[in-house]
Amino acid sequence: MKNIATFFLTVILPVLIITVILRDASRDNTLLEDLREEFSIPHIPSVDHSKHAELQRDFDNPHEITATCLSCHTERGNEVIANAHWNWEREAYIEGRGVTYLGKKNLINNFCTGILSNEATCNRCHIGYGWSDDSFDHSNQNNIDCLICHDNSGLYDKARGGAGYPVPGLDLQTIVQQVGRPQKDNCGYCHFYGGGGNNVKHGDLENALLTASWEVDVHMSAENTHLECIDCHQTTNHQMLGRYYGVSSENTQRATCENCHTSLPHINNKLNEHTVKVACQTCHIPVYAKVNPTKMHWDWSTATDRLEGEPYEVLDTLGNLLYTSIKGDFHWRQNAVPDYVWFNGTADHHLISDIIGAEDSVIYINTLFGDAHDPDSRIHPVKIHTGKQPYDTEHRTIIQAKLWDAQEGTGALWIDLDWDEALQAGMDYVGMPFSGQYDFIDSKMFLLVNHMVSPADQALSCEDCHTRTGGRLQNIEGIYIPAQTTYAAIDYFGVFLLLFSFAGIVIHATMRYLAARKTKE
Amino acid sequence: MKIYLYSRYERFWHWTQAFLILFLALTGFEIHGSYRFFGFENAVYLHNNAAWVLIVLIIFTIFWHFTTGEWRQYLPTTKNLKAQIDYYVTGIFRNAPHPTKKSLISKLNPMQRLVYLGLKILFIPVMVLSGLLYMFYRYPIHGRIESLGFDDLTTIAYIHTLGAYILLAFVLVHVYLITTGHTLTSNLKAMITGWEELDEEEPEQTKNDE
What we know:
The structure holds two protein chains of two kinds.
Chain A: H1 2-24, H2 30-40, H3 62-72, H4 76-81, H5 84-87, E1 90-94, E2 98-102, H6 119-122, H7 147-150, H8 172-176, H9 184-191, H10 229-232, E3 235-236, E4 239-240, H11 258-261, H12 269-274, H13 280-284, E5 294-299, E6 313-315, E7 321-324, E8 328-333, E9 339-343, E10 347-349, E11 362-364, E12 366-368, E13 378-392, E14 397-398, H14 413-416, H15 419-430, E15 438-448, H16 462-465, H17 488-520
Parallel strand pairs in A: 5-13, 11-15
Antiparallel strand pairs in A: 1-2, 3-4, 5-8, 6-7, 7-8, 9-13, 10-12, 13-14, 13-15
Chain B: E1 2-4, H1 8-31, H2 40-68, H3 81-89, H4 110-136, E2 138-141, E3 144-147, H5 154-177, H6 186-193, E4 195-197
Antiparallel strand pairs in B: 1-4, 2-3
Helix pairs in contact in B: 1-2, 1-5, 4-5
């Protein structure tokens, strides 16, 4: 007994202790503390624009403001007009298509379907003045709207249907004297309201970010971190990091979590190994549309209905629009669980000129490339927005409808409520043939969920994916996920082997028992 | 007749390994998704740490085998192999004597020699290797995650799971076969105390187990 105790104390116990210590040797997560310190330093502007002599005056029109800005910031205009925020298109190589020039300028989607023929209202969100149709001069730097991004007074506002011009009657002198670094509400002025209202399009970008709690967004939380959009979407010479794959195609210039957090952000190395195949967002954004609902489905086919001759609207009890005669039916969702897809940073888009195959029952507005065996691919959370939108049944192309105009009788759907006219006017504007025959086709659009990161203690836990059934990644193919993935043949063989062994034991034991009884007799 | 068959270390090794294998099976099949008991995260933690303990135990035991010469117990032989099989298939029901006499220099019958040798040079190494690959097919180093060239876990996990079923079936049959000694519990007692009661020289005088 004494020897056993000695052996245990001198050999086994030290070995156990060493083993456990080695296994759990951890490093402190000083990275997060460093980041907190770095981003707690407030930005101190080098210039007080209210002291500039050039700005002590009234401005007759916004172009004069731009000219005044450029009189000092002489090279910034060149930067801006080379920018995707200005051009709404980028040169991009797409596998299967080659070099393309695509962007919001010419792509379709399954929300308002596209800007073409609707520029005067859509392009309220352009960083320029006067893009009301395809005659807009992208080379004239005085068309740049500096204020929409740089107004820090909170007073600046662009007019509805004004093609990017400001609301008449603004106190422009006060506004120009308070310009500075872009803040949340500058970016949010457009990016929170995509699709025609707060949080409609993205689900993870909305005005709740202006007053977000720690639970809603650990980065922009008004309670402690206070990050601005451009802290992550870092900008050099007006070129920003960040990609929205509704309009982007290439795996370049992306704003990434790793940029600050590195690719080994966890203390637990088992979690770090996940970063090879799983994007940070997958675990750290367990739900989107946390504060306000986002649109999940838009059915255009029911639009133009009238009640007693008049257009009408149907709201749910929370005030969400469920139906409107000008747009059709909507579905909304709050605290939505994302779908998950492989994504390698490249995407394709359904172009308005693309032919819809005879057997295609659904069109993919955008296609996120990637698969399990592609080393650049990781599993990302997405919002899938489904739509039902008009297409030409003869020419088998998606149709760009004309939705808006300042006056009646031009074919604008939202004014005249006539599909035939709206489709004809839209396609005439685009310069594509319209057969007059149309129907509505299902469409899917994939929007990556990147924002509104939850606190670490609310991230997904192991069992959210590592479970036999109903895991978050149950539709992810091509990768072995412990607990979820099984190979039926091995389990059948294993269970058979155990049952076979057990049966053999029972039979053998019974025979021994009977034989022994017989011997006894 | 009683002989001292199993030394202290041998018994310590046997029972620690038995416990670890059962514990690894319990946590392992939870990781496999067969049931929920500890919770996945805990199961992984416990499984990995138990695996390290088992590896340390195996290293010690390899050392023990060579320093004591006990490794010779596992040298395979076909002598008496058929007799041993015949005993399990027919002899045992006729109360025939054990065809192999246990002694200090030959503790194992020819079937045991083959099966245990198989465990030692095939199944345990395959489980340890596939387990280590499961842990380290990707590993963090110098601020990056390096890979051992495996695309994903599929092959490693399939081998590890298959091995687990086979080991579990071995344990099941093993636990049954220890009841076939001189008495139902003489083998069990031997592995606990070291002393094993063996058949008398004259088999017809063997005490009836029942």
